[in-house]
Amino acid sequence: MGKKPKEDSSTRIIQAAAYFFSRKGFSGVGVREIAAKAKVNISMVSYYYGGKSGLLKAIVTEYFSHVDSIAIKLSSKSLSPREALKEFICEMVYLIKEKEDLCKVAMIEMPIELPEITSLKIELLKNNMKLMIQSLSNGFNISDPKKHIIIGPAFLSLIFSGFMFGNLIKKISGEKIDSAFYKRYCDTISSLFLDGMNGIAKPNKKEKKYEN
Amino acid sequence: MGKKPKEDSSTRIIQAAAYFFSRKGFSGVGVREIAAKAKVNISMVSYYYGGKSGLLKAIVTEYFSHVDSIAIKLSSKSLSPREALKEFICEMVYLIKEKEDLCKVAMIEMPIELPEITSLKIELLKNNMKLMIQSLSNGFNISDPKKHIIIGPAFLSLIFSGFMFGNLIKKISGEKIDSAFYKRYCDTISSLFLDGMNGIAKPNKKEKKYEN
Amino acid sequence: MGKKPKEDSSTRIIQAAAYFFSRKGFSGVGVREIAAKAKVNISMVSYYYGGKSGLLKAIVTEYFSHVDSIAIKLSSKSLSPREALKEFICEMVYLIKEKEDLCKVAMIEMPIELPEITSLKIELLKNNMKLMIQSLSNGFNISDPKKHIIIGPAFLSLIFSGFMFGNLIKKISGEKIDSAFYKRYCDTISSLFLDGMNGIAKPNKKEKKYEN
Amino acid sequence: MGKKPKEDSSTRIIQAAAYFFSRKGFSGVGVREIAAKAKVNISMVSYYYGGKSGLLKAIVTEYFSHVDSIAIKLSSKSLSPREALKEFICEMVYLIKEKEDLCKVAMIEMPIELPEITSLKIELLKNNMKLMIQSLSNGFNISDPKKHIIIGPAFLSLIFSGFMFGNLIKKISGEKIDSAFYKRYCDTISSLFLDGMNGIAKPNKKEKKYEN
DNA sequence: CATGAATGAGAATTCATTCAT
DNA sequence: AATGAATGAATTCTCATTCAT
User: Fold this and answer.
1) What's the CA D18/C1' F17 distance, rounded, in angstroms?
2) How sure is the predictor about B204, in pLDDT bands with cuts at 50, 70 and 90?
3) Which residues in chain D touch residue C144, judged by CB atoms under 8 angstroms apart?
4) Cβ burial B76-86 (10 Å sphere, 16+ → b, else e)
5) Is B185 in Cβ contact with A141 (below 8 Å)?
6) Residue D152 CA: distances (Å) to CA of B12, C169, D190
7) So what CATH class is D60-201?
8) Cα angle vertex B139, ends B134, B144, to 5°?
9) Mind spelling out the 3-state secondary structure of C45-114?
């Protein structure tokens, strides 16, 4: 194999942006820092992406396109609801593993109100939810339809939880993120979402019948 | 005694800070905006909190003190594991209901690397995790101890999920956040965490035995 | 002896001011720092001295009153020109030893243009020069009267030189300032001013007659 | 290549800085004032010099490079000690004449403790003293080596004395600084340093043998 | 494509001072 | 005599962006 081809400027910029946005948040980073990491001139950011917020738009857009693809691919397979959920979770974890910075940016910026990208975010999220509901939740008979908007975000938050707290966890527990971790993570989150704590642990005391 | 404080500037400042931090993120807000909303002179922020990051420290500290209190209170009652979890979730939701801005700030800033508060965050989180594990998870017989650091964050993310995506959800679904919502939210998240999708919905189609 | 009486606020303030002005220059210090060192409330500075520049005025005024006193005292003794100069130098060094901060402030602020104290400085300096010329230089027959305004400052600079560079010298050479130093300093500066390098060192090579 | 620099902003900035630093002291000037005089945008100061203290560093560094050059040039000539001293003084006066602001800044800031430049100052001064001792004082047989650290600063202070008190002198005596002044200054300071008051004036009264 | 100087607005913070208590 | 909250101006520095080269 030859020498690794050096990525072009615009790619380096967006990667550097994802790197910093995911660690410091959009507003916590300057284009200077991004340009420096990408080893390009500052003006190149405006040149390629039309400004700082263009970077965020590009990142968020790419994130949703990946998730949408997963949902679409899943729709085409005819899996049982449980299988579909499990596979979705695993695909998502794989996506995060491959593009951690990108995914974290999208998730971190979700609750942040940034006028320039709000409409984009809403549009993409709306479409994405439609696709996901289509491919996942029609297998379930959810009594109260209002629960949809609770379960949806809960599902996503669950999947991301390990990565959002990742850095702190690492600093606290010293746990390292290897591929064994991803496997374990995938299984645990799937069990949790499908069967709750029941799927993970048996109460070990004289627990009586629970009254919910 | 000095000039009489008009109504309590420092309180108004911290509230304004929480308001904006929760919506725009720490770095997305300026002290000017905060001071304006709090109707105080800009320099009062430094005067009372020693600077912008002092505000964040105060907020994060308060958040953890609340959560710690909940955990401690729970420890003193002797509840079954399921009961304890359910009650913890409800208490947390109540806390979020009462101090939404404050809680959201703490959660939003969790994955953000801000050198000035990193050590504080770690210290508080470490202590908080100890208290929570003490009061909650000793009722469960978790096979692999490594799952702790997956379940912990998952649990917290689950509880917060509705509020993190809250604004977007509101814009997309038009759902309004009334006290019925909190009740429903509490129940749904509890079921989900305790029993997973099984606790919420029965598969309605030709679902065969699942293989996990 | 009883316990050392704690100096009153206004004294502590002026001492703290001299301490910092002599180290950081007038503009390099804030009243906060001064008040903190003096252990008084910030407003006390304005209360006692009418503001920050009042502090400098007080310091400069005191410095000149000391130097004037020395000159006046010298006038009353009838000494030879050499004796007078030597004694003046020694008295000045003694003054600096006793009130180093105060003297350094006066000297440091001499070349600094600070509108609020310029007229004060000029008035005091004019009067001081008159007294000094009276008490010192009428013993010398200085050919060109224009040399007066060269020799005057040179004389003062010479006396202060060791203290102006003091801190740097200490850091570079490790020399410590004990009372032996003051003695040696006094002698050396006196010799230098009276006899030049000739008074201090003999050229050690085959130096021929000098042509000035 | 970027936009063509108009006439040389960075030079105008450093000159404006020297102008103000020499008159008001480093802390007494704001970058605004400097930028205004240099007719550049305020941010250019940080752009070129990395901040206000970068300006001072540049000025101090340049000052020492000039003085070092003089010392080095002198070393290469083989002059008698007296000749060397005289020439050094004249070269210094010439330097001050040409770059008065710059030199005054260096001298004024010598006793000021500014953490950001302390180490730079020490390093430069140490090196400079080595060069000066090398080129000047090996012609003299100074009995007590401890006198070195007295004579060194005294020498420098002497040379600068006229310029440090310059403004005040001008205001008091009305003397104007023309090239005749520099000539006279040079001669007077040289005489003073080499032969002391003896070199300048003969005692005119009943002076007896002096006892040092 | 790429550069780097330049801009002007805005960032956070610190300043000396005042004033009601 | 002393306090400390409050003010508003001024501090330095950084921001994203533009533009001529």
Assistant:
1) 31
2) very low
3) 184
4) eeebbbbbbbb
5) no
6) 60, 10, 15
7) mainly alpha
8) 90
9) HHHHHCCHHHHHHHHHHHHHHHHHHHHHHHHHCCCCHHHHHHHHHHHHHHHHHHCHHHHHHHHHHCCCCC
How far separated are the first and last CA of chain A, in Å rounded? 61
State the CB neighbour count (10 A cutoff) for residue A191. Answer: 20
Contact C193, D193 (CB under 8 A): no
Any atom of strand F under 7 A from CB of C46?
A: no
- For position D79, what pLDDT does the model report? 84
Tell me the C-alpha distance between D32 and B66, whole Å. 47
Q: What is the mean pLDDT of chain A?
A: 87
Tokens 């404006």 sit on residue: D16
Residues of B in contact with A142 (CB under 8 A): 200-201
Q: Which residues of C touch D158 (CB under 8 A)?
A: 154, 157-158, 161
Residue type, A25: G
pLDDT of residue C3: 44
Closest Cα in chain A to B156: A161
Nearest neighbour of A157 by CB, restricted to B152, B158, B185: B158
Mean pLDDT, residues C131-153: 78
Distance of CA D66 to the CA centre of its chain: 10
pLDDT at C174 over 60: yes
pLDDT tier for residue C133 given thresholds of 50, 70 and 90: confident
Residue ranges for chain D with pLDDT beneath 50 = 204-212
Report the alpha-carbon distance of residue D212 to residue B101 in Å, rounded.
81
Q: Is the CB of C38 under 7 A from strand F?
A: no
Q: Which of residues 111-150 of A touch strand F (CB under 7 A)?
A: none
Measure A127 CA to nearest chain B CA, in Å. Answer: 10
In 3-state terms, what secondary structure has residue B110? coil
CA of D1 to C1' of E1 (A): 12
Quickly give A93 CA vs F3 C1' distance in Å.
60
**D48-67 residues near strand F (Cβ < 7 Å):** 50-53
Contacts of D198 in chain C (CB under 8 A): 194-196, 198
pLDDT digits (tens, 9 = 90+) for D55-100: 999 999 999 999 999 999 998 888 888 888 999 999 999 999 999 9
pLDDT tens string A136-193: 866 676 767 677 788 888 999 999 999 998 888 888 887 778 888 888 899 889 988 8
The nucleotide minimizing the C1' distance to residue C9's CA is F1
Q: What is the DSSP string of B28-49?
A: G--HHHHHHHHTS-THHHHHHH
- In strand F, which positions have an atom below 7 A from any protein CB? 1-21
The answer to whether residue B36 scores a pLDDT higher than 90 is yes
Q: Which amino acid is at A51?
A: G
